[in-house]
Amino acid sequence: MKLSLELAPFAAAVADAARALPGRPPVPVLAGLKLEAAARQLTVAAFDYEVSAQATLAADVTDAGSVLVSGRLLSDITRTLKGKNTIDLELDGTRLVLTCGAIRYTLHTLPLEEYPSLPKTADASGTVAGSELAAAVAQVAVAAGRDDTLPVLTGIQIEIADGKLSLAATDRYRFAVRRIDWKAPSGTTDGQALVPAKALLDTAKMLADADHVDLTLPSDQGVLGMAGPARSTTMRALEGQLPNYKALWPTPDDFIASAVVDSEELTAAVKRVALVADRSTPIQLHFTQDALSLTAGSSDDAQARDRIDATFDTATGAPLTIAFNPSFLLDGLGALNAPSVIFRIVSAVKPALITGANNDGSGVGEDSLSYLLMPVRLSS
Fold it and tell me: How confident is the model at residue 247, as a pLDDT?
């Protein structure tokens, strides 16, 4: 194998493929990146039996071939080669020689014959814009669980129905749902899959610049596929599925109150008040006709109080107090990414629906992020 290529695209390809490298490889070869040169292009690939990633870039190939080298080392090398234009790769026996200007590296290779074949997917189920997918996954991922003893809750559920792609995640304390536009070939059936949130988030970031991303729902192999023009990945789906969020969502008739608050002001106020709240201490939100007061702490410890403007509407005409975990509330406010937020409240002890709003208080669209947050029950 012998080839020459531009350094910057090569470094980017290595970095993208290295996302799939396992932290603790079960076998030594899985710590490697596979480099395959053929037909004026180089493919860089990684696989850990759960997630695979491939990056393709143009190269001036003199001799085609494949090699397996340490992924972490190659990633470190390409990341530190600043200000160089091209890099030459040449396989010399069992060594891979990298030459970049006056810099020369000689790397040990791993046994290529022991490296597993990357999984293959069926024809694409449909197409979505890379930027929209990346934004939607990032919004929903904040609600995914991080407890590996409950693997179902560490996933993001992808569902295709009614010409839309829906993403949902929950850790039992909050539920985030987002829908985006979806283009599917005629005759494609609806379906769903539950995939690891971290893997999906990494992949969506990698494909964010793609004009289109082909998505393939799991088939008999249980593997979800995502591919852009020069990047592709697969990930093994999780067994099970999330609770049916449609059954959990309040209906418009359930709400007894709503409030519109400036997002930036609320985020800043929550952060100020949360300074006195430990992980088990909620922040209380006291809604009145034209204001929102935030309090935290206890009489036996530090306390904080803040007040910001708010528009509050309630059927009863009475003030309302509801309490939330400050970290969960801030996660939702950050994910909404809207000028204002709307709180729709059923009661002080039932989940509140938080959505984004424009400056005039109008909603930002039915496909935007919906964040259902469980309140903290206050002692009497």
Answer: 87
Q: What angle do CA 249, 253, 256 make, to 5 degrees?
A: 95
Q: Is 240 found in the same domain as 176?
A: yes
Q: Distance between CA 77 and CA 72 in Å, rounded?
A: 9
CB of 354 closer than 8 Å to CB of 373: yes
Burial 184-219 (b: 16+ CB within 10 A, else e): beeeeeeebbbbbbbbbbbbbbbbbebebbbbbbbe
Are residues 20 and 131 both part of a single domain? no
Angle at 103 between CA 99 and CA 107, to 5 degrees: 60
- By the 8 A CB rule, do 266 and 223 touch? no
Cα dist. 54→3, 33, 117, 119, 247 in Å?
Answer: 18, 10, 12, 11, 39
Chain segment 169-213, per-residue pLDDT in tens: 999 999 999 999 999 887 677 889 999 999 999 999 999 999 999
CATH code, 349: 3.10.150.10
Owning domain of residue 150: 126-245
Burial of 46 (C-beta count, 10 Å sphere; 0-12/13-18/19+): buried
